[in-house]
Design goal:
The chain has 25 helices and 26 strands. The chain is of the alpha+beta class. The chain has 5 domains: 67 residues, Alpha-Beta Plaits; 255 residues, no CATH class; 97 residues, Distorted Sandwich (Calcium-transporting ATPase, cytoplasmic transduction domain A); 132 residues, HAD superfamily/HAD-like (Rossmann fold, 3-Layer(aba) Sandwich), CATH 3.40.50.1000; 97 residues, Calcium-transporting ATPase, cytoplasmic domain N (3-Layer(aba) Sandwich), CATH 3.40.1110.10. The strands form 5 sheets. It has a 7-stranded mixed β-sheet with strand order 14-26-25-24-15-22-23, sandwiched between helices. It has a 6-stranded antiparallel β-sheet with strand order 6-5-7-13-8-11, with no helix packed on it. It is elongated.
Length: 712
C-alpha cells in the first residue's frame, strides 16, 4: 500500500528545542511512521500508513504549545514581517532614549526618576514588544521543557526585577535598561535572521510564485478566465505570448518557444509544436498555444517538484542527531552554569576583587561595584544570554535549505537529505545507458522487413512502454489485432497475430550485425514461428553532456561504470565514445543490483543512475539512487535524487552541491561549538556585559545563516 505524505506549516517555533518537541508530538499520532520538523523552513513532514486528518495534526501540535497555519506561505510571511517590524520599531523607540539616559547616569549625571523610567518603559518593552518571546518561553515552561526564548526571557526579566527591587531601595544595582536592550537586540537579530532565511529559501519561493492563479479556458461558446482550482483534465486552455503556462498538457494548436528555466534550470528556450508536452510554470515566449490539460492540482509537475523539495528540506541527515542531542540538554545545562556562576560570585566576591581590577584593564565593560549581589546578577544574566543555542539549531537546517534550493535551481531535486552526507564518500557511479548516457529518444534508422511485417511488429510493440518499443511503434502506425502478449524483461516481447507467433527482441547471433553494433546502434531481431525474418536498426543519440560529465567524474577520483542490458558490442561502443572504461553488458535488472552489492562489499559507496522504471531495485539498493526523468518520472519513489532535465552532468552537479553543503554544515557546527566554548566561560567569569552577550549571540546566528548562503 502506498504511503501517505503530508507537509504542514508550523508556527510559534523559535529554536531547535521547539522543533524537537513538535516532532516528538507528531510521532505519537496513530499511523504516523515518520515525522520530521525543520526549524529553518518552519515546516513538518509526515509519512503515514493512511491519510492523517489535518485536524489531528493541528490538535497534537497545539497541545505541544504551537500552531498549524493554513495560510498561503507568502500571506503568512507578510503578516509576520509586518508584526515583527512593528515590534522592532516600537522597542527601538523606547530603548534608544533609555540607553542614552543610562550612559549619562553611569557618567555621574543625575537623571531624576531614572529607575522608575527603567521600571515602566523597560516593562513596556519586555511585556509588549517582547510578548512573543514571553509566550514562547511560557509555553516551554508549562510543558516542562526549555528553549532559546527561555534564556532570553529569564535574562531580561531578571534585569527588570533588579529595577523593581532598586526602586524600593533594595541594595542592588538596577539593570533595567540592560533588560530592555536584551529584548531589542534579540528582536533585531530575529528580524535579520528571518530576512536571511527567506533569502536562503528563495528558489522554492520563486517556484511557488510562478504557479498560476487563473487560466483562460476555451469553451464552446467562447473564452472564459477561471481560477486554476476549477480547471479540469481535458479542458482546452489558451496561453498567449508572454504568459506563463497555468497547467501541464499537450499542445493541440500553435508553435512557440517556451522558457523552462525556472523549472529545469536550462536557460535556452525550447521550441514547442503540436503534440509536444508543456509544463505549468513555463513561460510562453513567441506564439499563442492551445493546450489540452492532462494534469492539474497536486498531480502537476510543478506541484510535485515543490512538494519534493519541501520534503527534502524537512528531513534530517545523520549528523543532525548529534546537534539535537546536545541542544536537548543545552538550555538546562546553561541554567545550571548560570546559577553556579551567580552563587560563586556572591559567596566569593571579595576574594576576586583584585582579579576584577586587573581584568578591567582589558575588559572595561566589567561591572564596577562593591555589591556581591549586583555582580552575581551581572554574571548570571550574561551567562544566560550568551548561551542561547540558536546558531547550533540553525547550523544544519539552513545549509539544507540553501543546498536543496540551489539543486532545484539547476533542475535537480534532492528527495532524501541523507544523500547530502553520503555523497562525499561516493567512489563509484554506475549508470544505465538508455536515457542516461543517451537521450532516451531512440528512433528507427533502418530495417529489413516488408511493409506488412513492419506493421505487425509495430502493432505488437505498441503494447509496450519500453523506449525501443516506442521507437518502433512511432516509426510505423498500426492497428493490427494482437493476442497473448508476453513481455520478457531484458529480452523482448512475444505475441500472436493471426495464429502466427512473433518474438521481437535481442538477436540470437550477433555476428551478422557487428558493423552496426560497433557504431553504437541497437539491433532488434524479428522471429516469426521460430524463423528469423529480419531486423530493425535503432539509434539513440548520446547526450551532449555525457562525455564531459564522465571526464569530471574521473578528475574527482570517481570511477564511472556502465550497466546495460544491451549486447556487449553496442554497450562498449557507447562507453568508448564517452570515456567509460568499465562496462557490464547484457545484464538483467536483477543482475544490476548484484553488481552494486559486490562493490559495496568491497567497502565502496555506490551511486546508481537509472531511468526510474526497470532500475527500481538497483536505485533502491545503491547508497544513492538517482532517477533521470522529465515530468512523468518525477515521483520515482525509489530514488534519493531526481533529475528534472539533463543527463550525467547533473550527477556531477549533485555531488558538488552535496559535498559543499556538507562542508558548510561542518563549518557551521564548528563555529557554533567554538563560539559557545569560548563565550560561556567568559560570561561566567564576569568578562561579558549582558548587552554585548546578546549582540554576540545574534551575530553568531546571522553568521551561521550567511555561511549557509555561501553554498549558492
Amino acid at each position: 500500500m502506498e504511503k501517505k505524505k503530508k507537509n504542514v506549516s508550523v508556527i510559534g517555533m523559535t529554536c531547535v528545542s521547539c522543533a524537537n518537541r513538535v516532532e516528538n508530538a507528531l510521532k505519537k499520532i496513530k499511523g504516523v511512521e515518520f515525522a520530521s520538523v525543520n526549524l529553518a523552513t518552519e515546516s513538518a513532514f509526515l509519512i503515514s500508513e493512511k491519510e492523517v486528518p489535518l485536524e489531528d495534526v493541528k490538535k497534537v501540535v497545539e497541545e505541544a504549545g504551537y500552531g498549524i497555519s493554513t495560510e498561503a506561505p507568502e500571506d503568512l510571511e507578510k503578516r509576520r514581517y509586518r508584526s515583527s517590524r512593528k515590534n522592532l520599531i516600537f522597542s527601538y523607540f523606547i530603548t534608544i532614549p533609555l540607553s542614552i539616559l543610562m550612559i549619562f547616569n553611569m557618567l555621574g549625571c543625575t537623571i531624576p526618576y531614572f529607575v522608575w523610567m527603567e521600571l515602566v518603559f523597560g516593562g513596556i518593552v519586555l511585556f509588549y514588544a517582547g510578548k512573543n518571546t514571553i509566550k514562547s518561553a511560557w509555553i516551554a515552561l508549562i510543558h516542562f521543557h526549555t528553549n532559546m526564548d527561555t534564556l532570553i526571557f529569564i535574562g531580561s526579566l531578571t534585569c527588570w526585577i533588579t529595577a523593581l527591587l532598586h526602586s524600593f531601595t533594595f541594595p542592588i544595582i538596577s539593570f533595567g535598561t540592560i533588560g530592555t536592550m536584551i529584548i531589542t537586540i534579540h528582536l533585531t537579530g530575529r528580524f535579520i535572521e528571518s530576512h536571511l532565511r527567506d533569502k536562503a529559501a528563495k528558489e522554492i519561493k520563486a517556484l511557488i510564485k510562478i504557479q498560476a492563479k487563473e487560466a483562460t479556458v476555451i469553451f464552446s461558446d467562447g473564452l472564459d478566465t477561471i481560477p486554476i482550482e476549477a480547471v479540469k483534465v481535458g479542458f482546452l486552455v489558451l496561453v498567449k505570448p508572454g504568459e506563463r503556462l497555468p497547467i501541464d498538457g499537450q499542445i493541440e494548436e500553435g508553435i512557440s518557444s517556451v522558457d523552462e528555466s525556472m523549472i529545469t534550470g536550462e536557460s535556452i528556450p525550447v521550441s514547442k509544436v503540436k503534440g509536444d508536452h508543456v509544463t505549468g510554470g513555463s513561460l510562453n515566449l513567441t506564439g499563442a498555444l492551445k493546450v489540452r490539460v492532462d494534469k492539474v492540482g497536486e498531480d502537476s509537475f510543478l506541484s510535485q517538484m515543490i512538494d519534493l523539495i519541501k520534503q527534502a528540506q524537512g528531513t534530517k541527515i545523520p549528523i543532525q542527531a548529534l546537534a539535537d542531542k546536545i541542544t536537548l540538554w543545552f538550555v538546562p545545562a546553561i541554567m545550571f552554569l548560570a546559577i553556579v556562576s551567580a552563587l560563586t560570585w556572591y559567596l566569593r566576591f571579595n576574594e576576586f576583587q583584585g582579579f576584577l581590577s586587573y581584568a578591567r584593564n582589558y575588559f572595561p565593560w566589567i561591572l564596577n561595584t562593591d555589591s556581591a549581589l549586583s555582580f552575581s546578577v551581572f554574571a548570571f544574566v550574561s551567562t544566560i544570554v550568551i548561551a542561547c543555542p540558536c546558531a547550533l539549531g540553525l547550523a544544519i537546517p539552513m545549509a539544507l535549505v540553501s543546498g536543496t534550493g540551489l539543486a532545484a535551481k539547476k533542475g535537480l531535486i534532492i528527495r532524501n537529505a541523507e544523500a547530502i552526507q553520503t555523497s562525499k564518500d561516493i567512489r563509484v557511479i554506475m549508470t544505465d545507458k538508455t536515457g542516461t548516457i543517451t537521450l532516451g529518444q531512440p528512433s528507427v534508422v533502418d530495417h529489413t522487413l516488408s511493409q506488412e511485417e513492419m506493421k505487425i511488429v509495430a502493432g505488437i510493440e505498441s503494447n509496450s512502454n519500453h523506449p525501443l518499443a516506442k521507437a518502433i511503434s512511432s516509426f510505423q502506425k498500426s492497428t493490427i489485432k494482437v493476442e497473448n502478449i508476453e513481455e520478457i524483461s531484458g529480452e523482448g516481447i512475444r505475441a500472436f497475430v493471426k495464429g502466427d507467433e512473433f518474438f521481437i527482441g535481442k538477436p540470437k547471433q550477433l555476428e551478422p550485425y557487428i558493423k552496426q553494433l560497433k557504431e553504437g546502434k541497437i539491433v532488434v531481431e524479428v522471429i516469426k514461428n521460430g524463423k528469423n525474418i529480419g531486423s530493425i536498426i535503432i539509434e539513440d543519440p548520446i547526450r551532449p553532456d555525457s562525455k564531459q560529465a564522465v571526464l569530471k567524474m574521473k578528475n574527482s577520483g570517481i570511477n564511472p561504470i556502465m550497466l546495460s542490458g544491451d549486447n556487449r558490442e553496442t554497450a562498449q561502443a557507447i562507453a568508448y565514445r564517452v570515456g567509460i572504461e568499465k562496462v557490464f553488458a547484457e545484464v538483467k535488472p536483477k543482475d544490476k543490483l548484484n553488481i552494486i552489492r559486490d562493490y559495496q562489499r568491497k567497502g565502496m559507496k555506490v551511486l546508481m543512475v537509472g531511468d526510474g522504471m526497470n532500475d527500481a531495485a538497483s536505485l533502491k539498493g545503491a547508497d544513492i539512487g538517482v532517477a533521470i526523468g522529465e515530468g512523468a518520472d518525477l515521483a520515482v519513489d525509489n530514488a534519493d535524487m531526481v533529475i528534472v532535465k539533463g543527463g550525467l552532468s547533473r550527477i556531477v552537479d549533485s555531488i558538488e552541491i552535496s559535498q559543499k553543503t556538507f562542508r558548510i554544515i561542518k563549518q557551521n557546527l564548528f563555529w557554533a561549538f567554538f563560539y559557545n566554548s569560548l563565550m560561556i566561560p567568559m560570561a561566567m567569569a564576569g568578562f561579558l556585559h549582558p548587552a554585548i552577550a546578546e549582540g554576540a549571540m545574534a551575530i553568531s546566528s546571522i553568521t551561521v545563516i550567511l555561511n549557509a548562503l555561501r553554498i549558492k
